[in-house]
């Protein structure tokens, strides 16, 4: 049976968020994780023309991969994290004009 995996990269913030959202399915083995920074992950991404992560790939019975729809793996509703409202204090900014205007050169400035 074909197995779907998410293709991720360690430096990708969206990948980390996707892994967090899919943590239960990953832990159960329903969805795999392939690191695009590895030789295997890079080869899969290159062969399928994947230019960005996270993305979804599906391993076929013959060992090859095809691109699948990442949105199919995600829940239809992703709850937003609960935050306390930010308190922003007013800040006064004073901008003073410069004492003399910057020079305007019609040719390159002198070296």
Rg estimate, integer Å:
25 Å
From the spread of the alpha carbons, the general shape counts as elongated
- Note the gap between the termini: 70 Å
CATH uppermost class of one domain: Alpha Beta
The helix/strand class is alpha+beta
CATH architecture descriptor name of one domain: 3-Layer(aba) Sandwich
Helical residue percent band = 25-40%
Widest beta sheet: strand line-up = 2-1-3-4
CATH fold-type name of one domain: Glutaredoxin
Q: Determine the strand fraction and express it as a percent band.
A: 15-25%
Mind summarizing the main beta sheet? 4 strands, mixed
Low-pLDDT sequence parts:
none
Q: What are the salient characteristics of this protein?
A:
alpha+beta, 4 helices, single chain, elongated, Glutaredoxin, 111 residues
